[in-house]
Amino acid sequence: SAPIANASVSINGTPLAYSPANQDYEGNLVVAPGSTVTLNVTVGGTTYTASGTQFTSYPAISAPLAGATWSSFAANLVAWSNGAPTTNSFHTLAVLDSADPNGQVIWPSGNTPPPVLSTSTTSYTINANSITAGSRLVIVGILTGAQIPNAAPNSVLGISGFTYVPITVTNSTAATLLSIAVTPSNPSMANGTTAQLTATGAYSDNSTRDLTTQVIWSSSDNTKATVSSTGLVTAIATGSTTLTATSGNISGSTQANAFQPSAPSPDWVSFQGDARHSGFVNAQFDPALFTQIWSWSRPAGDPEPIGSINSVATTAGKVIVTKDVYFGQGAVYALNEADGSLNWTYAFGQMASEGPPAVANGNVLVPTTDPGERCVVWAIDATLGTYQFKMPSDCQWSNFFAPTALDGSVLQTAQYGSVYSYSIFSGGLQWEVPAGAWDQSTAAADARYAYQYGIAGGPALKVFDRMTGATMASIADPFASASSYSMFSAPMLGATGDAIVFSGGGFSGRAASSSEQFDSRPLVSYNIAGKTIAWRSANAYLTHPAIANGVIYTARNAPPTLDALSEADGRILWSWTPPAGNTSFHRNTVVTNNLVFVSTDANVYAIDLSTHEAVWHYAKPGMLAISGSSILYIATGATLSDGNLVAIKLK
């Protein structure tokens, strides 16, 4: 039928003029998002009125990206989000010729109408060989219609809007997608938090492309973690979930582990007690009550030459002891704290070396090097003594500090200089980054970052994002030499955004994890936020420091002196000198609410923090740890363990 050219047409009171060329009524007006749109048409003396609501937003196209190149020979994905549908609305899409002022439709071709898609649909794949080469516009629209009362059937007020991205279509042969890698790998996430995944495609022409917004994301268990169409993961409830990115018949996945953060353990679970390596025990002790309750010796029968044990860890009424071996039979022992009796043991077999244990997530974590120069951290069930999984790293003949575990990850520093992060739930590798460190070290960790000091490539403290391993800061140490074989140090985190570390590496001359370095070194405090050095100590120190309430406790020799340093500026607040018969300080320092424990070459002393006087001593030196059961453990030996462990009840 002929068009009606003499009607009176207006929208929201704005008249529209008839266009003979286009055979429609046209005009310009602004309609705010979410506003009412009212159409009035008067023809033949009758007025027809219909109303609808303008959309509040339009689809946001996530694939392709503006400026992308498509191959006409390939299937091409269009993906979008953020439409604001109303009742009876739908999506549609088309590809136009951007060089044509009239916007000629390139796809769909001929008389084929554009696809009509439900508003729950957020992607569409255009078949291969259906788009010609040239400059193109990919358009995604949203439409809705309102019936016009009393008008002829199918008379509607249509409201629509669209967005577009410019692309180039070529006739070149498309590279084939071979695989998809999803990162970060094996993320550990606290319940209620989010993390952004990235999907990277590897192609047959050796190129890689970011496919994050072009793949279809899915979660194997939406009750544990969900993933959005753009790869944003939300941890819902404790457990593991496989997150998959799919493009056609190619997919890649990673395992997300959601967890509920726990309160800090009262036990001694890592190097210097905790992931911050603070050496602090939040307890008050009366020296008058200190009593030795048992001692234990490494079992005889292994002919290897060291015969030592490492520093210990504690958990749930058990003390965990590992052997320090040089090509001997590796083993870990769980002793009952009450009497030193054996709860369980796990044998690793012939090992070139074995390091100190850590405890986390119900597992004992033990680093070893086997005779084939393969390094792993073993996870052994802390209750049953059964094998759980292993975490490998690159190394040569490594000796170790205890691994550092916090929340969902385990950190291990390897001899070749890298820090490794593993899932605490499965042992899956999360990331590995170079840090310039050697063996005999371990990273410190807080909720956001991992901290590692290294000397290779220039002495520096490096700060890494715990989720991705990205380097957040590298703060140079101008005081240290870059030459050393081992580290014999670990960062200690303070309470004011600072990290305190020995400057430079160390050397013991022994292939033994329980050995002590010869080197005394200055302490350097790093301002993490400012990425600067706050201070360097005036003296060189030997014992691993402890920190509490703004004070750092560490000991030096020549002459032997225990110093209490200000965390703020490194100045000496007070000092203590051991009595005659003690010629040097050794090992580590431990501080409680009222005492600081330190070892000389002959004794372990407890110094009162108020009077600065010794209030107790034990007549053997050694490596110190205090458990959540208020038991002081001394792995005896001033510079190398003699294979014995002493338990002192403090309460």
Write up what this structure looks like.
The chain is mostly beta strands and 651 residues long. It folds into three domains: 8-53, no CATH class; 177-259, Immunoglobulin-like, CATH 2.60.40; 271-649, YVTN repeat-like/Quinoprotein amine dehydrogenase (Methylamine Dehydrogenase, Chain H). The strands form 15 sheets. Strands 3-2-1-4-5 form a five-stranded antiparallel β-sheet, with no helix packed on it. A five-stranded mixed β-sheet has the order 7-13-12-9-10, with no helix packed on it. A hairpin with a 5-residue loop joins strand 32 and strand 33. The protein is elongated, with a radius of gyration of 34 Å.
Strand order of the largest sheet: 3-2-1-4-5
What is the CATH domain class of the largest domain? Mainly Beta
Radius of gyration, in angstroms, nearest whole number: 34 Å
Distance between the termini: 101 Å
CATH superfamily grouping of the largest domain:
YVTN repeat-like/Quinoprotein amine dehydrogenase
pLDDT < 50 stretches:
none
Number of domains: 3
Q: Helical proportion?
A: under 10%
What structural category do the secondary elements indicate?
mainly beta
Strand content: over 45%
Average pLDDT rating = 93
The major pleated sheet works out as: 5 strands, antiparallel
